[in-house]
Amino acid sequence: MRIRWWFVLGILAWMPPLAVRAEEEVKLNGRAVDATGKPLADVEVAAHWHIQNGMMNPYNGTVTNAEGRFTLAVSFFGRSQALLALEKDRKSGALLVLDEKGAAKPVELKLGPLVHVHGQFFCKELDKKPMWTMVYMMSGDARFLGCSSDDASFSFHLPPGTYKFWGYGRDIQSLKKDLTLSADKPDMNMGTLDMAATIIARHKGKAPPAWHVTDARGVKKEVEISDFKGKWVLLEFWGHW
Question: Has residue 201 got a pLDDT over 80?
Fold first, then answer.
């Protein structure tokens, strides 16, 4: 047992400092103000937001006090984070992208009118809408918003700016595109997005395609799927993300 403990301690001693610090939270201080610089109270601030059933909910966020000030714990993990602040009526907000160095100084979020982003997904190839979809919004490499849906739609409000839109769902391939929101266009209707079907969805209800087996256990290496005709066959697909 003593040898095992020394082994664990040896690994911890070998790990570089950055690997340990990647999990640490940074205390970020700031304040929210309106266009004239007046402090705003009860503004919700978070680095991650989730939209479900049309409601925008902050994850591990905070709320500004009467002086518009807030303190928020943020984990950077070696990349930038986008700080999104929204008034509770979701009519005004602000977005700020910063790295760990920028978090060392107090930040100011100046709130202004938001743009309503909405649309829906459909797959013409399968002639149906997906049963489940997800939209992620990013500013640079900072992913700050996720919108899941059971009716293949999305709807949320964001400050004007340039974003990366990433949509995907069940039986459909992902779609990534740049999205620019302008203050003079408060409604961004993306309409119906035609999504390509996944290769698995294309073969549902059809004979499976031929396979190429590189190794096998319990059967010959040259086994073919037709060898199992009339029998139940379980195919497991897996991967790493």
Answer: yes
